[in-house]
Amino acid sequence: MSEKFDVIVIGAGPGGYVAAIRAAQLGLKTAIIEKYQGKEGKTALGGTCLNVGCIPSKALLDSSYKFHEAHESFNIHGIATGEVTINVPTMISRKDQIVKNLTGGVAGLIKANGVTLFEGHGKLLAGKQVEVTGLDGSTQVLAAENVILASGSTPVEIPPAPVDQNIIVDSTGALDFQTVPGKLGVIGAGVIGLELGSVWARLGAEVTVLEAVDKFLPAVDEQVAKEALKVLSKQGLNILLGARVTGTEIKGNQVVVSFSDATGEKQITFDKLIVAVGRRPVTANLLAEDSGVVVGERGFIEVDDFCATKVPGVYAIGDVVRGAMLAHKASEEGVVVAERIAGHKAQMNYDLIPAVIYTHPEIAGVGKTEQQLKAEGVEVNVGVFPFAASGRAMAANDTTGLVKIIADAKTDRILGVHVIGLSAAELVQQGAIAMEFGSSAEDLGMMVFSHPSLSEAVHEAALAVNGHAIHIANRKKR
User: Fold this and answer.
1) Is 1 annotated as a binding residue?
2) Model-wide pTM > 0.90
3) How crowded is residue 214: how many other Cβ atoms within 10 Å of its Cβ?
4) Which UniProt keywords apply (predicted)?
Protein backbone atom coordinates (compact mmCIF):
# COMPACT_ATOMS: atom_id res chain seq x y z
CA MET A 1 0.00 0.00 0.00
CA SER A 2 1.31 3.44 -0.95
CA GLU A 3 2.48 5.86 1.74
CA LYS A 4 -0.08 8.58 2.46
CA PHE A 5 0.54 12.24 3.24
CA ASP A 6 -1.69 15.16 4.16
CA VAL A 7 0.17 17.31 1.64
CA ILE A 8 2.48 16.44 -1.25
CA VAL A 9 4.29 19.30 -2.99
CA ILE A 10 5.75 18.79 -6.46
CA GLY A 11 8.66 21.20 -6.92
CA ALA A 12 10.99 22.67 -4.29
CA GLY A 13 11.39 26.21 -5.61
CA PRO A 14 10.47 29.35 -3.64
CA GLY A 15 6.79 28.42 -3.93
CA GLY A 16 7.07 24.71 -3.21
CA TYR A 17 9.55 24.62 -0.34
CA VAL A 18 7.79 27.48 1.46
CA ALA A 19 4.42 25.72 1.06
CA ALA A 20 5.92 22.48 2.42
CA ILE A 21 7.51 24.17 5.43
CA ARG A 22 4.33 26.09 6.30
CA ALA A 23 2.19 22.95 5.90
CA ALA A 24 4.51 21.05 8.25
CA GLN A 25 4.43 23.92 10.76
CA LEU A 26 0.63 23.60 10.75
CA GLY A 27 0.88 19.95 11.77
CA LEU A 28 0.28 18.38 8.37
CA LYS A 29 2.25 15.30 7.30
CA THR A 30 4.11 16.71 4.30
CA ALA A 31 6.29 15.46 1.45
CA ILE A 32 8.11 17.38 -1.27
CA ILE A 33 9.44 16.09 -4.60
CA GLU A 34 12.37 17.64 -6.47
CA LYS A 35 14.32 16.40 -9.48
CA TYR A 36 16.78 19.26 -10.12
CA GLN A 37 20.45 18.32 -9.91
CA GLY A 38 22.95 21.06 -9.07
CA LYS A 39 26.50 21.51 -10.34
CA GLU A 40 27.82 18.85 -7.97
CA GLY A 41 25.39 16.24 -9.30
CA LYS A 42 23.25 16.24 -6.16
CA THR A 43 19.61 17.20 -5.69
CA ALA A 44 19.50 20.96 -5.12
CA LEU A 45 16.44 22.62 -3.62
CA GLY A 46 15.38 26.25 -4.13
CA GLY A 47 14.30 26.05 -7.77
CA THR A 48 15.32 28.47 -10.50
CA CYS A 49 15.49 31.39 -8.06
CA LEU A 50 18.20 30.00 -5.78
CA ASN A 51 20.09 27.92 -8.33
CA VAL A 52 20.10 29.78 -11.65
CA GLY A 53 17.97 32.89 -11.18
CA CYS A 54 17.44 35.61 -8.59
CA ILE A 55 20.27 34.77 -6.20
CA PRO A 56 23.21 33.99 -8.54
CA SER A 57 22.35 36.93 -10.78
CA LYS A 58 22.36 39.30 -7.79
CA ALA A 59 25.73 37.89 -6.69
CA LEU A 60 27.18 38.73 -10.12
CA LEU A 61 25.44 42.11 -10.19
CA ASP A 62 27.01 43.02 -6.84
CA SER A 63 30.48 41.78 -7.84
CA SER A 64 30.39 43.59 -11.16
CA TYR A 65 29.16 46.81 -9.56
CA LYS A 66 32.00 46.75 -7.04
CA PHE A 67 34.42 46.42 -9.96
CA HIS A 68 32.67 49.28 -11.75
CA GLU A 69 32.87 51.50 -8.64
CA ALA A 70 36.55 50.74 -8.10
CA HIS A 71 37.22 51.49 -11.75
CA GLU A 72 35.08 54.60 -12.16
CA SER A 73 34.13 56.10 -8.79
CA PHE A 74 36.78 55.57 -6.13
CA ASN A 75 38.86 58.57 -7.19
CA ILE A 76 36.13 61.02 -6.23
CA HIS A 77 36.34 59.69 -2.65
CA GLY A 78 40.12 60.14 -2.65
CA ILE A 79 40.76 56.40 -2.94
CA ALA A 80 43.62 55.47 -5.27
CA THR A 81 43.71 51.84 -6.30
CA GLY A 82 46.06 51.62 -9.24
CA GLU A 83 45.00 49.27 -12.02
CA VAL A 84 41.85 47.31 -11.16
CA THR A 85 41.33 43.91 -12.75
CA ILE A 86 38.58 41.29 -12.58
CA ASN A 87 39.16 37.57 -12.08
CA VAL A 88 36.00 36.16 -13.65
CA PRO A 89 36.41 32.53 -12.48
CA THR A 90 36.78 33.79 -8.87
CA MET A 91 33.64 35.89 -9.28
CA ILE A 92 31.75 32.87 -10.64
CA SER A 93 32.99 30.56 -7.87
CA ARG A 94 31.84 33.09 -5.24
CA LYS A 95 28.40 33.03 -6.86
CA ASP A 96 28.41 29.22 -6.81
CA GLN A 97 29.30 29.18 -3.11
CA ILE A 98 26.41 31.51 -2.26
CA VAL A 99 24.06 29.22 -4.18
CA LYS A 100 25.45 26.16 -2.38
CA ASN A 101 25.02 27.83 1.03
CA LEU A 102 21.42 28.80 0.36
CA THR A 103 20.28 25.55 -1.26
CA GLY A 104 21.90 23.66 1.61
CA GLY A 105 20.06 25.96 3.99
CA VAL A 106 16.73 25.09 2.37
CA ALA A 107 17.53 21.38 2.65
CA GLY A 108 18.24 21.92 6.34
CA LEU A 109 14.92 23.72 6.83
CA ILE A 110 13.02 20.96 5.05
CA LYS A 111 14.60 18.39 7.35
CA ALA A 112 14.18 20.50 10.51
CA ASN A 113 10.46 20.88 9.83
CA GLY A 114 9.97 17.15 9.34
CA VAL A 115 9.14 17.32 5.63
CA THR A 116 9.90 14.10 3.71
CA LEU A 117 12.01 14.73 0.59
CA PHE A 118 11.65 12.47 -2.46
CA GLU A 119 14.38 12.95 -5.07
CA GLY A 120 13.02 12.55 -8.57
CA HIS A 121 10.20 13.58 -10.90
CA GLY A 122 6.68 13.99 -9.55
CA LYS A 123 3.57 13.36 -11.65
CA LEU A 124 -0.03 13.84 -10.55
CA LEU A 125 -2.26 10.85 -11.25
CA ALA A 126 -6.02 10.54 -10.83
CA GLY A 127 -7.41 10.44 -7.30
CA LYS A 128 -4.67 12.67 -5.82
CA GLN A 129 -2.05 9.98 -6.22
CA VAL A 130 1.47 11.07 -7.11
CA GLU A 131 3.96 8.98 -9.03
CA VAL A 132 7.61 9.58 -8.18
CA THR A 133 10.21 8.51 -10.71
CA GLY A 134 13.52 8.32 -8.88
CA LEU A 135 16.87 9.39 -10.29
CA ASP A 136 17.64 5.71 -10.89
CA GLY A 137 14.42 5.25 -12.92
CA SER A 138 12.53 3.37 -10.21
CA THR A 139 8.93 4.42 -9.54
CA GLN A 140 6.67 4.54 -6.51
CA VAL A 141 3.18 5.91 -5.97
CA LEU A 142 2.28 8.13 -3.02
CA ALA A 143 -1.22 9.07 -1.88
CA ALA A 144 -2.25 12.49 -0.63
CA GLU A 145 -5.19 14.34 0.86
CA ASN A 146 -3.87 17.47 -0.88
CA VAL A 147 -1.38 18.09 -3.69
CA ILE A 148 0.38 21.39 -4.46
CA LEU A 149 1.82 21.74 -7.96
CA ALA A 150 4.84 24.07 -7.91
CA SER A 151 6.80 23.01 -10.99
CA GLY A 152 8.00 26.51 -11.90
CA SER A 153 9.13 27.85 -15.26
CA THR A 154 11.93 27.57 -17.79
CA PRO A 155 13.45 30.04 -20.29
CA VAL A 156 11.52 30.53 -23.53
CA GLU A 157 13.42 29.38 -26.61
CA ILE A 158 13.00 31.02 -30.01
CA PRO A 159 13.63 29.30 -33.36
CA PRO A 160 15.88 32.06 -34.80
CA ALA A 161 18.35 31.66 -31.91
CA PRO A 162 18.71 28.01 -30.79
CA VAL A 163 20.59 27.80 -27.48
CA ASP A 164 23.79 25.72 -27.40
CA GLN A 165 24.97 26.99 -23.96
CA ASN A 166 28.32 27.80 -25.55
CA ILE A 167 28.03 30.78 -27.88
CA ILE A 168 24.24 31.20 -27.73
CA VAL A 169 23.13 30.87 -24.12
CA ASP A 170 20.00 31.33 -22.03
CA SER A 171 19.88 33.07 -18.64
CA THR A 172 21.44 30.00 -17.00
CA GLY A 173 24.44 29.91 -19.35
CA ALA A 174 24.99 33.66 -18.94
CA LEU A 175 25.74 33.07 -15.24
CA ASP A 176 28.73 30.88 -16.05
CA PHE A 177 30.90 32.78 -18.54
CA GLN A 178 34.56 32.28 -17.60
CA THR A 179 35.79 35.36 -19.47
CA VAL A 180 34.28 38.73 -20.32
CA PRO A 181 32.93 38.65 -23.90
CA GLY A 182 34.29 41.37 -26.18
CA LYS A 183 30.94 41.88 -27.90
CA LEU A 184 27.81 40.59 -26.20
CA GLY A 185 24.33 40.45 -27.69
CA VAL A 186 21.19 40.18 -25.58
CA ILE A 187 17.81 39.31 -27.09
CA GLY A 188 15.15 40.85 -24.86
CA ALA A 189 15.14 44.12 -22.91
CA GLY A 190 13.16 42.75 -19.98
CA VAL A 191 14.24 42.19 -16.39
CA ILE A 192 16.60 39.27 -17.13
CA GLY A 193 18.15 40.79 -20.26
CA LEU A 194 18.87 44.13 -18.61
CA GLU A 195 20.31 42.58 -15.45
CA LEU A 196 22.61 40.14 -17.25
CA GLY A 197 23.56 42.75 -19.84
CA SER A 198 24.51 45.11 -17.00
CA VAL A 199 26.77 42.52 -15.34
CA TRP A 200 28.93 42.02 -18.40
CA ALA A 201 28.82 45.66 -19.56
CA ARG A 202 30.29 46.76 -16.21
CA LEU A 203 33.12 44.29 -16.68
CA GLY A 204 34.00 45.70 -20.10
CA ALA A 205 31.82 43.93 -22.65
CA GLU A 206 30.35 45.95 -25.51
CA VAL A 207 26.65 45.12 -25.05
CA THR A 208 23.82 45.44 -27.57
CA VAL A 209 20.26 44.64 -26.47
CA LEU A 210 17.77 43.72 -29.19
CA GLU A 211 14.13 44.21 -28.20
CA ALA A 212 11.32 43.33 -30.61
CA VAL A 213 8.80 45.67 -28.95
CA ASP A 214 9.20 49.34 -29.82
CA LYS A 215 8.47 50.53 -26.26
CA PHE A 216 11.00 50.22 -23.43
CA LEU A 217 9.75 48.44 -20.27
CA PRO A 218 6.06 48.84 -21.14
CA ALA A 219 4.89 47.47 -17.76
CA VAL A 220 6.93 50.06 -15.82
CA ASP A 221 5.64 53.56 -15.06
CA GLU A 222 6.40 55.60 -18.20
CA GLN A 223 8.29 58.37 -16.40
CA VAL A 224 10.51 55.80 -14.65
CA ALA A 225 10.99 53.77 -17.85
CA LYS A 226 12.04 56.89 -19.76
CA GLU A 227 14.61 57.73 -17.08
CA ALA A 228 15.81 54.10 -17.05
CA LEU A 229 16.39 54.07 -20.81
CA LYS A 230 18.41 57.27 -20.59
CA VAL A 231 20.53 56.05 -17.66
CA LEU A 232 21.19 52.52 -18.98
CA SER A 233 22.09 53.86 -22.42
CA LYS A 234 24.54 56.27 -20.78
CA GLN A 235 26.07 53.27 -18.96
CA GLY A 236 26.91 51.67 -22.30
CA LEU A 237 23.96 49.39 -23.01
CA ASN A 238 23.12 49.88 -26.69
CA ILE A 239 19.36 49.24 -26.53
CA LEU A 240 17.73 48.77 -29.94
CA LEU A 241 13.92 48.87 -29.79
CA GLY A 242 11.69 47.46 -32.50
CA ALA A 243 14.51 45.06 -33.44
CA ARG A 244 13.12 41.62 -34.26
CA VAL A 245 15.72 38.83 -34.50
CA THR A 246 15.18 36.76 -37.66
CA GLY A 247 18.16 34.40 -37.58
CA THR A 248 21.56 33.47 -36.19
CA GLU A 249 24.59 31.83 -37.77
CA ILE A 250 27.59 30.59 -35.82
CA LYS A 251 30.87 31.33 -37.57
CA GLY A 252 33.86 29.98 -35.69
CA ASN A 253 33.72 31.37 -32.15
CA GLN A 254 31.24 34.10 -33.01
CA VAL A 255 27.58 34.40 -33.91
CA VAL A 256 26.11 36.59 -36.64
CA VAL A 257 22.66 37.83 -35.63
CA SER A 258 20.20 38.97 -38.30
CA PHE A 259 17.38 41.28 -37.27
CA SER A 260 14.90 43.67 -38.82
CA ASP A 261 13.85 47.10 -37.62
CA ALA A 262 11.99 50.08 -39.07
CA THR A 263 14.84 50.76 -41.50
CA GLY A 264 15.20 47.21 -42.84
CA GLU A 265 17.35 44.11 -42.39
CA LYS A 266 20.61 44.30 -40.42
CA GLN A 267 23.34 42.05 -39.02
CA ILE A 268 25.64 42.27 -35.99
CA THR A 269 28.42 39.86 -34.99
CA PHE A 270 28.82 38.92 -31.30
CA ASP A 271 31.20 36.77 -29.27
CA LYS A 272 28.30 35.60 -27.08
CA LEU A 273 24.53 35.91 -27.37
CA ILE A 274 22.09 35.73 -24.43
CA VAL A 275 18.50 34.78 -25.22
CA ALA A 276 16.30 36.38 -22.54
CA VAL A 277 12.83 36.64 -24.05
CA GLY A 278 10.85 35.47 -21.04
CA ARG A 279 9.90 32.26 -19.28
CA ARG A 280 7.18 29.64 -19.74
CA PRO A 281 5.49 27.32 -17.24
CA VAL A 282 6.81 23.77 -16.83
CA THR A 283 4.03 21.20 -17.17
CA ALA A 284 5.77 18.49 -19.24
CA ASN A 285 4.90 15.07 -17.82
CA LEU A 286 3.50 16.75 -14.70
CA LEU A 287 -0.11 15.63 -15.13
CA ALA A 288 -1.63 12.31 -16.13
CA GLU A 289 -4.38 12.71 -18.74
CA ASP A 290 -7.01 11.68 -16.22
CA SER A 291 -5.69 13.87 -13.38
CA GLY A 292 -8.54 16.32 -13.93
CA VAL A 293 -6.31 19.40 -13.78
CA VAL A 294 -6.89 21.89 -16.61
CA VAL A 295 -3.99 23.53 -18.47
CA GLY A 296 -4.89 26.68 -20.44
CA GLU A 297 -3.85 27.71 -23.95
CA ARG A 298 -0.65 29.48 -22.80
CA GLY A 299 0.46 26.47 -20.76
CA PHE A 300 -0.56 27.78 -17.33
CA ILE A 301 -2.49 25.57 -14.92
CA GLU A 302 -5.95 27.04 -14.39
CA VAL A 303 -6.68 28.05 -10.79
CA ASP A 304 -9.09 30.29 -8.87
CA ASP A 305 -8.18 33.30 -6.69
CA PHE A 306 -6.94 30.94 -3.98
CA CYS A 307 -4.78 28.78 -6.28
CA ALA A 308 -7.23 25.86 -6.28
CA THR A 309 -7.53 23.83 -9.49
CA LYS A 310 -10.77 22.25 -10.71
CA VAL A 311 -9.86 19.11 -8.73
CA PRO A 312 -10.77 19.40 -5.01
CA GLY A 313 -7.63 19.18 -2.91
CA VAL A 314 -5.25 19.96 -5.80
CA TYR A 315 -3.62 23.39 -5.93
CA ALA A 316 -1.03 25.10 -8.13
CA ILE A 317 1.23 28.04 -7.27
CA GLY A 318 4.05 30.20 -8.60
CA ASP A 319 5.27 30.47 -12.18
CA VAL A 320 3.02 27.62 -13.33
CA VAL A 321 -0.13 29.72 -12.73
CA ARG A 322 -1.40 33.17 -13.79
CA GLY A 323 0.19 36.36 -12.53
CA ALA A 324 3.70 37.74 -12.23
CA MET A 325 6.55 35.22 -12.42
CA LEU A 326 8.16 36.40 -9.19
CA ALA A 327 9.67 34.32 -6.38
CA HIS A 328 7.99 36.35 -3.63
CA LYS A 329 4.59 35.92 -5.27
CA ALA A 330 5.15 32.13 -5.40
CA SER A 331 6.24 31.99 -1.75
CA GLU A 332 3.21 33.92 -0.55
CA GLU A 333 0.89 31.70 -2.59
CA GLY A 334 2.56 28.70 -0.97
CA VAL A 335 1.81 30.05 2.50
CA VAL A 336 -1.80 30.88 1.59
CA VAL A 337 -2.46 27.41 0.15
CA ALA A 338 -0.88 25.63 3.13
CA GLU A 339 -2.98 27.68 5.54
CA ARG A 340 -6.18 27.10 3.57
CA ILE A 341 -5.51 23.35 3.58
CA ALA A 342 -5.17 23.59 7.37
CA GLY A 343 -8.58 25.28 7.58
CA HIS A 344 -7.54 28.94 7.87
CA LYS A 345 -9.11 31.65 5.68
CA ALA A 346 -5.85 32.99 4.29
CA GLN A 347 -5.63 35.14 1.17
CA MET A 348 -3.08 37.40 -0.51
CA ASN A 349 -3.28 40.85 -2.04
CA TYR A 350 -2.38 40.47 -5.72
CA ASP A 351 -2.66 44.25 -6.21
CA LEU A 352 0.40 44.91 -4.06
CA ILE A 353 3.18 42.68 -5.36
CA PRO A 354 6.38 44.73 -5.72
CA ALA A 355 8.44 44.25 -8.88
CA VAL A 356 12.16 45.04 -9.09
CA ILE A 357 14.83 45.19 -11.79
CA TYR A 358 18.24 44.95 -10.11
CA THR A 359 20.21 47.09 -12.50
CA HIS A 360 22.08 50.04 -11.00
CA PRO A 361 20.16 52.16 -10.38
CA GLU A 362 17.47 49.71 -9.32
CA ILE A 363 14.03 50.08 -10.92
CA ALA A 364 11.07 49.15 -8.71
CA GLY A 365 7.35 49.68 -8.42
CA VAL A 366 4.24 48.61 -6.53
CA GLY A 367 0.60 49.31 -7.26
CA LYS A 368 -0.57 50.96 -10.47
CA THR A 369 1.38 53.08 -12.94
CA GLU A 370 0.30 56.55 -14.03
CA GLN A 371 -0.53 55.28 -17.52
CA GLN A 372 -2.71 52.47 -16.10
CA LEU A 373 -4.66 54.91 -13.94
CA LYS A 374 -5.14 57.34 -16.82
CA ALA A 375 -6.44 54.49 -18.99
CA GLU A 376 -8.92 53.63 -16.23
CA GLY A 377 -10.06 57.28 -16.06
CA VAL A 378 -8.87 57.75 -12.47
CA GLU A 379 -7.93 61.33 -11.59
CA VAL A 380 -4.61 61.41 -9.75
CA ASN A 381 -2.14 63.71 -8.07
CA VAL A 382 1.53 62.89 -8.53
CA GLY A 383 4.49 63.73 -6.33
CA VAL A 384 8.07 63.31 -7.57
CA PHE A 385 11.31 63.81 -5.68
CA PRO A 386 14.71 63.47 -7.38
CA PHE A 387 17.65 61.87 -5.61
CA ALA A 388 19.71 64.80 -6.88
CA ALA A 389 18.14 66.74 -3.99
CA SER A 390 18.87 64.04 -1.39
CA GLY A 391 21.76 64.72 0.99
CA ARG A 392 22.20 61.00 1.67
CA ALA A 393 22.36 60.19 -2.04
CA MET A 394 24.94 62.97 -2.53
CA ALA A 395 27.05 61.53 0.30
CA ALA A 396 26.88 58.15 -1.42
CA ASN A 397 27.85 59.72 -4.78
CA ASP A 398 24.72 58.12 -6.25
CA THR A 399 22.13 60.77 -7.13
CA THR A 400 20.57 59.20 -10.23
CA GLY A 401 16.82 58.73 -10.31
CA LEU A 402 13.65 59.67 -8.48
CA VAL A 403 10.79 58.58 -6.24
CA LYS A 404 7.26 58.93 -7.64
CA ILE A 405 4.07 58.60 -5.61
CA ILE A 406 0.65 58.55 -7.25
CA ALA A 407 -2.47 59.26 -5.18
CA ASP A 408 -6.19 59.38 -5.93
CA ALA A 409 -7.08 63.06 -6.53
CA LYS A 410 -10.35 62.71 -4.61
CA THR A 411 -9.36 60.55 -1.61
CA ASP A 412 -5.55 61.09 -1.48
CA ARG A 413 -5.16 57.31 -1.11
CA ILE A 414 -1.80 56.10 -2.48
CA LEU A 415 -2.33 54.02 -5.64
CA GLY A 416 1.26 53.51 -6.81
CA VAL A 417 4.87 54.00 -5.72
CA HIS A 418 7.61 53.86 -8.35
CA VAL A 419 11.34 54.37 -7.87
CA ILE A 420 14.46 54.40 -9.97
CA GLY A 421 17.57 54.89 -7.90
CA LEU A 422 19.78 53.61 -5.10
CA SER A 423 17.95 51.03 -2.92
CA ALA A 424 14.75 51.34 -4.98
CA ALA A 425 13.61 47.86 -3.88
CA GLU A 426 13.75 48.82 -0.20
CA LEU A 427 12.03 52.18 -0.76
CA VAL A 428 9.20 50.67 -2.81
CA GLN A 429 8.62 48.17 0.01
CA GLN A 430 7.92 51.13 2.31
CA GLY A 431 5.27 52.18 -0.20
CA ALA A 432 3.83 48.65 -0.26
CA ILE A 433 3.51 48.64 3.54
CA ALA A 434 1.79 52.04 3.48
CA MET A 435 -0.59 50.95 0.71
CA GLU A 436 -1.45 47.67 2.49
CA PHE A 437 -2.78 49.78 5.35
CA GLY A 438 -4.67 52.12 3.02
CA SER A 439 -2.42 55.13 3.63
CA SER A 440 -2.99 58.49 2.04
CA ALA A 441 -0.14 60.62 0.75
CA GLU A 442 -0.85 62.93 3.68
CA ASP A 443 -0.32 60.01 6.09
CA LEU A 444 3.17 59.39 4.70
CA GLY A 445 3.86 63.13 4.68
CA MET A 446 3.02 63.37 8.39
CA MET A 447 5.40 60.57 9.42
CA VAL A 448 8.88 61.33 10.76
CA PHE A 449 11.68 59.98 8.53
CA SER A 450 15.27 59.75 9.74
CA HIS A 451 17.76 62.26 8.40
CA PRO A 452 19.87 61.89 6.41
CA SER A 453 18.37 58.84 4.73
CA LEU A 454 17.36 57.73 1.25
CA SER A 455 13.82 57.15 2.52
CA GLU A 456 13.43 60.90 3.00
CA ALA A 457 12.85 60.87 -0.75
CA VAL A 458 9.68 58.85 -0.12
CA HIS A 459 8.62 61.41 2.50
CA GLU A 460 9.25 64.33 0.15
CA ALA A 461 7.49 62.64 -2.80
CA ALA A 462 4.45 62.08 -0.55
CA LEU A 463 4.51 65.74 0.45
CA ALA A 464 4.89 66.75 -3.20
CA VAL A 465 1.64 64.94 -4.09
CA ASN A 466 -0.23 67.83 -2.48
CA GLY A 467 2.32 70.55 -3.24
CA HIS A 468 3.94 70.51 0.20
CA ALA A 469 7.49 69.30 -0.53
CA ILE A 470 10.11 71.14 1.47
CA HIS A 471 13.39 70.38 -0.29
CA ILE A 472 12.33 70.96 -3.90
CA ALA A 473 10.22 73.62 -5.52
CA ASN A 474 6.63 72.42 -5.83
CA ARG A 475 4.88 72.38 -9.18
CA LYS A 476 2.21 75.03 -9.31
CA LYS A 477 -1.33 73.73 -9.52
CA ARG A 478 -3.04 74.63 -12.76
Assistant:
1) no
2) yes
3) 12
4) Cytoplasm, Disulfide bond, FAD, Flavoprotein, NAD, Nucleotide-binding, Oxidoreductase, Redox-active center
